[in-house]
Amino acid sequence: MSADNEAEAQEKLIDLAAEFYDQFERGDIPEMSVPTRTKSNIVFDEDENVWVYGDRESTRSANSVRGARKLLKAIYTIEFLSEQLEADRSSTLRELYYLSESWDVNEAQFSSQDESNQLVEDLEIVSEVTREDFHMRPEESGATIMGPLHLREQTRRGEREIHCQKDVGEGGYQIPNNPDTIEFLDHDADFVLCVETGGMRDRLVENGFDEEYNTIVVHLKGQPARATRRITKRLHDELDLPVTVFTDGDPWSYRIFGSVAYGSIKSAHLSEYLATPEAQFIGIQPEDIVEYDLPTDPLSDSDVNALESELEDPRFQTDYWEEQIEIQLDIEKKSEQQSLASHGLDFVTETYLPERLEAMGVL
Amino acid sequence: MSADNEAEAQEKLIDLAAEFYDQFERGDIPEMSVPTRTKSNIVFDEDENVWVYGDRESTRSANSVRGARKLLKAIYTIEFLSEQLEADRSSTLRELYYLSESWDVNEAQFSSQDESNQLVEDLEIVSEVTREDFHMRPEESGATIMGPLHLREQTRRGEREIHCQKDVGEGGYQIPNNPDTIEFLDHDADFVLCVETGGMRDRLVENGFDEEYNTIVVHLKGQPARATRRITKRLHDELDLPVTVFTDGDPWSYRIFGSVAYGSIKSAHLSEYLATPEAQFIGIQPEDIVEYDLPTDPLSDSDVNALESELEDPRFQTDYWEEQIEIQLDIEKKSEQQSLASHGLDFVTETYLPERLEAMGVL
């Protein structure tokens, strides 16, 4: 992130606080409005091709003691974040929660980490500055990359130039918490392949798939961290690479695809920053379970509920997903991506992925 | 891992299979004995200073259909592993489970992944070869290292020389699944600091603790993977570095320390390979909660049960742990390591860790 971003983030935070002063001055009761963050309040943005929040808003107003406390906490947090940016420091969401215990006004201290997490999200939405630009780090770390990509990372200790095949061990390149510190220097890639599980990621690397198919393999590590989604989007947008997503064949994994492609309900204000609407789902598709005769487990009740909930989720209301989900509800089975090993350890790299990528028009 | 290891692993596997033939030839019913893997069957090995399995054994014998099937599965697995070593391939435990579906005898196929996992552990114990030397990879990946350490990793794509501060981004060096592919070239470290949470690991790196105190910071990522414990032990044994462990102050985190220092019950056959008995616990100690006036949460019922269970665990029966656990049961509170932020973001690196490391004789 550039110093420009930091200065701008600081300015926008201070603008928020200034707005409270203006409201006081006008004789208004200070308040802050944020979009309602529920599934029923996300709408499709035709221009950006992502799902964003709709028009419904919740207002935090100082017209009640509870509302006034929320605004007080916001002011203290704004001050902390602004000082943090000034000093070029950063902190985790959990540290912010604990740090509030040192604040001089007891009423401004957070009573739970949920409260401080939510406030930071509110500030992100209202200020239109990302948490990363506030220098707030997540608890969970980003995942890894392996592929023909040469990059430069700006670290606190200076610049590091790293080739994500030649300069890393078998574990790959560890994505930093804020991937906007990365500049792409050069690459020899034809597409990006995001992989859900570590076992499959290791299989692709062992089989040399990234070398043979000029693929940047991004390990999602289950539900991907923001850093992982952000760098995936940047690989697509800046390097003009197709992005494909390879997960288990069950409703929880379709949500993983959804969070890469469409953004999540919790962070719909960040869809433009995190989502890659052009991302394509490789599989495991329900029809693959039948076609490739994969080992399966029966759907549990919660699997069925999750599939039915996806049918009603606006992000999954496409012909493709409706057909796949109907197939799965019909066959009542799910398969893991590693179940491809039932046809041998090379089946995934020699048969399944090439066939799917060709069908999708990526190869 | 060297080719020697691979040849030796293969030989030991084939010896196991040959033993079944010998039993047949002698007119004996084939059987395989493995130590009983429960808390009541681990004993302290005075020579190696680690906890290992005691004398109690369970026998898998072909004198029942169930037992005969277990041995059949063992034979098929031995053949697979031996071929895998021959071809210099590797696979995950989950792949092995699915791969068994391609075996020609239905009776040899695993009915659940628990069954294949347990068999591989049995084979480890009986053959005295580690899973890594069978080329079996875990699902979970190792964590990261940041510190003044220069190493060489032998990858499938050739050797990689990496300095764990100068050649890596802020995310650090990703530990490979089998850290015995690593050779330590040079270092400038005074001690190793293993850290439970990502938030604290990032705090130490941001504050430059690894540079200021010549520390190799190993991120444990919760309960550490085998790869993480193995490299920690090697840093201790080969570089003669003190190992310290910094976790949250609750019974689950003491188990994390325990698995680094004493080994786990599940893998007591590997204690000599994975455990670092000289590892010291930094904290958060229950007495620190009082002394540093840290923000706390009340102990839950399951916390209390876990503490009481630790008092009866042979690995925790030392004066130190009995005292600390008694303090915690008495104050009825626990604290996270990030709660040190209640005294400011630099308190952990400027005050807490230097004080604790001095008290422990590490600094």
From TrEMBL, chains A, B:
Enzyme class: isomerase
Cofactor: Mg(2+)
Topoisomerase 6 subunit A/Spo11 TOPRIM domain span: 191-357
Catalysed reaction, written as an equation: ATP-dependent breakage, passage and rejoining of double-stranded DNA
Binding-site residues, Mg(2+): 196, 248
Domain Spo11/DNA topoisomerase VI subunit A N-terminal: 69-135
Pfam families, per the entry: TOP6A-Spo11_Toprim, Topo_VI_alpha, TP6A_N
Highest taxon, organism lineage: Archaea
An example Gene Ontology biological process: DNA topological change
Function: Relaxes both positive and negative superturns and exhibits a strong decatenase activity.
Family named by the database record: Belongs to the TOP6A family.
Subunit organization: Homodimer. Heterotetramer of two Top6A and two Top6B chains.
Protein name listed in UniProt: Type 2 DNA topoisomerase 6 subunit A
Taxonomic source organism: Halorussus gelatinilyticus
Organism classification: Archaea, Methanobacteriati, Methanobacteriota, Stenosarchaea group, Halobacteria
Gene, per the UniProt record: top6A
